Amino acid sequence: MSPLVTIISPTYNHEKQIGACIESVLRQTFPGWEMVVINDGSTDNTAQIVEQYSKIDDRIKLYNQKNLGIFRLAETYNRALQVANGKYIAVLEGDDLWVPAKLERQVRIMDGDDSLVLAWGMAQTLNESTGTLGPPIPLSVRPDLFNNDPPGTILNSLFFENPITAATILMRKDELLAIGGFQQSFNLPLVDLPTIFELVSKGRFYFDQHVLSYWRVSSIQITKKYPVEILKGRWELTRLQYNNTDQKTKDIIGIDLKVIDDYFLTRLLISYARSGRYRLINKDFKGARKDYKQAIFFQGLRQPIWRFRALTGWIFSFFGWDVEGLAKLVGKVTYS
What we know:
- The chain is α/β, with parallel strands linked by helices.
- The protein has two domains: 5-223, Spore Coat Polysaccharide Biosynthesis Protein SpsA, Chain A (Alpha-Beta Complex); 256-329.
- It has helices spanning 18-26, 46-56, 73-82, 102-111, 143-146, 155-158, 173-178, 192-199, 222-225, 227-244, 247-253, 257-281, 285-296, 304-319, 323-329, and strands spanning 5-11, 33-40, 60-65, 88-91, 97-98, 116-127, 133-137, 170-172, 204-217.
- α12 packs antiparallel against α13 and α12 packs parallel to α14.
- The relative contact order is 0.11.
């Protein structure tokens, strides 16, 4: 019998996390799944660990490939999609986790309403260094937007911040295939947002207010390394999506392009400041000063507090001082 759900799990050098990831799938209260693990050329023991699990449970399938990297993620995801047997597609990267009832809850909802193209829910961050859980995300719950009813409504959120954690998603495979599979554009190291954008007009979503997944975060993750580049890519992607949105939907959401541009200009200033801080932590003092300078002299008068933070970091960079120690002293979250 074919599985109802195919779980797509790209992984790279996750030998410390992949076992827990697979165990969270094995604990699912819904049994009708297959797990397609795409090993993207790991240089550690990731493949061997997955292979051991595949011998224990034949629903776990390992596919090895040469390393394509994060900027060719769509190729990796779509390779898994080509061999998927399920009616539904779920995403679980090799360092993330699910709660036991995740699939059962979502399959019941999707089976009960053919007009739904995607189901998603709450997640919690899991600090890789400390093992502690953060608050549930998204922080602000908006069922009026998050259910995408009527289709296009969720753009009120997606045009600014993506509230959907990839590990909580369950999609209909036929709808995913109809848009050409997983999407990636503007050199963004992600496939979730471009793919969700393509699905927004196809039907309603279902937002579950229960925590469905745990998303690992660390000080070395890609979003901290390249905040400016990622934000610029998201800005270009959002502008394209807005321009491709029909007028009826634009009237529903009531947002114009100037509001979007103003938002991203503000976020760009903050991203330069954050990038400077990350570089300072990693003792790239020249790179830190370059990013801090961009934030300090950013166009307009927006975000004076962030400009002051950037100025502080810029001064610290000349002396190699510990900006994280200062952040801890004043009660701010430290990057390290």
